[in-house]
Amino acid sequence: MPITKTSDSAVWRKRTTLQQWALWGGWFLLVVFFIFCWQVMTKDTIWYFVADAPTQAADLGGRMFPPRWSYIDVLWAPLWDTLNIATLGTLLGIAIAIPVAFLAARNTTPSVLFVRPIALFIIVSSRSINSLIWALLLVAIIGPGILAGIVAIGLRSIGFVAKLLYEAIEEIDETQVEAISATGASAAQVVDYAIVPQVLPAFFGISVFRWDINIRESTILGLVGAGGIGLQLQASLNVLAWPQVTMIFIVILGTVVLSEWVSAKVRHAII
Amino acid sequence: MTDAAVKPRRWKRPPVLIQDARWRLGIYSGAVIYLILAISSVEVNWVRVYDGLERGWRFVQGFLVPDFTSRWSDISQGLVESLTMTVTATVVGILISVPIGVGAARNLAPRPVYYVCRSIIALSRALQEIIIAILFVAMFGFGPFAGFLTLSFATIGFLAKLLAEDIEDIDESQAEAVRSTGASWLQLVNYAIQPQVMPRLIGLSLYRLDINFRESAVIGIVGAGGIGATLNTAIDRYEYDSAGAILLMIIAIVMVAEYSSGFVRKWVQ
């Protein structure tokens, strides 16, 4: 940290002049980059529509309210489907994620050089593709319906659950593993008695957290045909039945808030 | 009494999660009943699934032999839209969420401001990106501009919440020291708060950039521009080799973003 001496006193500054200029240059480049991106993005924007948006919003608001409360009778069955998609999908994801996590953790993987990178690749690819894209693919492959939704949620959950679980496995207390292996336990017994008890609370926490996220995601999977309340949303949007859309939004919001509350309660109880 | 007598000699099983046996039985049987009901309500058309296997195989082939060339102009346009949308939305989102985050910190903001900012955050977090995108597409028309607004809006909830929590967790003694010099509120924020939260703010911004790109690949499905629209078209036309190419590019960009943001975060902190 440089000190510049002026005629009568020493002035402390955090950065040297060169660093300061480099910093400003960096910010300047960022601004230029932002403007460039903005220009490219808005190249085809029709500004008339943007200027018109407040009127459109007011119009939309007028059409969306009041919500059609009676429509809720139609929504119970799709809501049940949505819950099932989230829960069964989470279970499917967990079932696949557990072995992947053990293969990915540095201290339990059979081979750091060969198996671990494969497990990490599974985790990254599952995480980088959104459940809606998985659903889009699966609807094309196995047809529309709940099954596509469950598999989509499951495939999406693998990465999340496995990543957090393998980090938990890597952070365990190694002395317990040593104690168990000192008794002459087999590899399976070491996992069962030394590792699983240590990661079990984390595992339940992760699972409930993912279930909560999956409730959120499963509400919209129907937009691409994968069952649940999103199907009603898509149908109502197609016929521009905005009061029904509002009703569906309310139901989705209620479900999401409720699931968040449940997951917070459960996580408090176990961790 | 000797030490050995105090310490238990026999290992005892740690207490189970739910103490009461009746409750445990009730919860377990409830879970089993739910599972049976849930699985039985899944209707599977096995003929359709069997038909789909062939298509699934074609998709795997398309994934292994991706076709970048025949739809390249669509793909590159979608990618450019997604990337520019991501950058602009992240920048604008951060610019908006910094004041909101400061306002939502209990130790900095007066009560009314705190509640207003917290409700903005709650609103932004409660609505999913897709739902916001549907509304914005209805208001602003199709295209990346609606996507930009969606991502900016979603960024606010994420970034402002974490920033506010971070500000609440700061080392109060530094704020105390600056306050005791008679500093104004702005000086307090600038000299006591900002240096403490800046590294984490940069880290969070990079993480959000990453998330925004992933989301930008999705909101195109409801018409908000970007690579999602291209992907949707490719799958609708059963062009699995192009779809595979798009998915591979999404995975590659996400991986690059993740590694480079990890690198930058290490460098900043």
UniProtKB/TrEMBL annotation, chain A:
Residues 79-263 form the ABC transmembrane type-1 domain. GO terms for cellular component: plasma membrane. Gene3D superfamilies: MetI-like. The keyword Endoplasmic reticulum does not apply. It is a multi-pass membrane protein. Its main location: membrane. Keywords: Cell membrane, Membrane, Transmembrane, Transmembrane helix, Transport. One of its GO terms (molecular function) is ABC-type phosphonate transporter activity. The chain crosses the membrane at residues 21-41, 85-105, 112-129, 135-155, 218-235, 241-262. It is found in: Cell membrane. Belongs to the binding-protein-dependent transport system permease family. This is Phosphonate transport system permease protein. It comes from Limibacillus halophilus.
TrEMBL record, chain B:
The keyword Cell membrane applies. PROSITE patterns: ABC_TM1. Gene3D superfamilies: MetI-like. InterPro entries: MetI-like, MetI-like_sf, PhnE/PtxC. Residues 79-259 form the ABC transmembrane type-1 domain. It holds the Pfam family BPD_transp_1. It is a multi-pass membrane protein. Its main location: membrane. It is found in: Cell membrane. One of its GO terms (molecular function) is ABC-type phosphonate transporter activity. Keywords: Cell membrane, Membrane, Transmembrane, Transmembrane helix, Transport. One of its GO terms (cellular component) is plasma membrane. The chain crosses the membrane at residues 21-42, 87-109, 130-159, 243-264. Belongs to the binding-protein-dependent transport system permease family. This is Phosphonate transport system permease protein. The lineage of its organism: Bacteria, Pseudomonadati, Pseudomonadota, Alphaproteobacteria, Rhodospirillales.
